[in-house]
Amino acid sequence: MTYQRPSLLVCCAPVLPLALGLLIYFGGIQNSSFLFINQITQNVPDRIWAGLTFLGNGWGTFALAFPLLLLAPCLLSAGIFAGLLGGLAIAILKPLVNLPRPASVLASGDFHQIGEALLYNSMPSGHTLTAFAVASGLYFACEIDKRKPLLCLFALASLVGLSRSAVGAHWLSDEFVAAAIGLWCGILGSFLASLIPDSQLFLSKWWPRFIALCGLLTIYPLLTQTMDSDLNHPLQYACALLIAITLALFVRAQRTQSSR
Question: Is the pTM of this model over 0.90?
Fold first, then answer.
């Protein structure tokens, strides 16, 4: 994988959503912006918003990106590193900032809520950060002339962020700040992935096999846990099936290579 360093302008671009998030928080429109988004998104079925928020769940994001193990292991590696960096940022920032969520500030009847009520550690939105980190990691790990189709990943990540207000879990400021941090995590994640030699990305090497093992372990929580909402159970089962099919093809590829 040939790493193509992002320009200074690109690296500074996440400052914009960061500034917007801080403007909402300190500008006195925290509650009103949340209630506006939460209200207008009620025109879309709950299942759609629950499914979109699942895309920002670490388990769901990994499962949906898992087929890249066969198609583009370098991109999947970038997504994994970006997601891990995002998880580290979430673990540090959430308890450090420790802001209340909408459910602990507003009366339950004032807004629409999907899933379990969450009260603390609001900023940044973990789902939004994960979605933007993985989207950014995949985008910047791809060759420049092939990146254009991947722009849709940022649109999808934006919908994941929007879903967090739609389900009543996060303020709009949480999502903007998370998007900024996620973008930086993705840029750094793509750089870390570039440090893996191309020779180590063949399916018979230890790194792809380690990822395959992680995929196998991911099937268990997908089948046994409720991720964000009961509405997501069919999606969880579909993701578990996606991983199982990918693993079957992975094993088949291993046998094909060993027989040559």
Answer: yes
